[in-house]
Amino acid sequence: MTTVVIHETINGRPYVIEVLAVGRDRWRAQLARRSTTAVMPFYGATPDEAARQLTGWLSRAGGTNRQP
Asked: Is residue 60 a part of any domain in this protein?
């Protein structure tokens, strides 16, 4: 099974993202397991697309401009 590892810094925090092939033209991006924090996986047709969806979510979730 092919695994792509991507290192990203999002909102000043380092992340390690693992992207795994789960089917034909289907990839799953998830945070590498370094803690007990659970984050749902994100899917895409390519490794880049799946990782882009996860990093986009992390950027929005960790942003400082959230409205109450």
From this structure: no
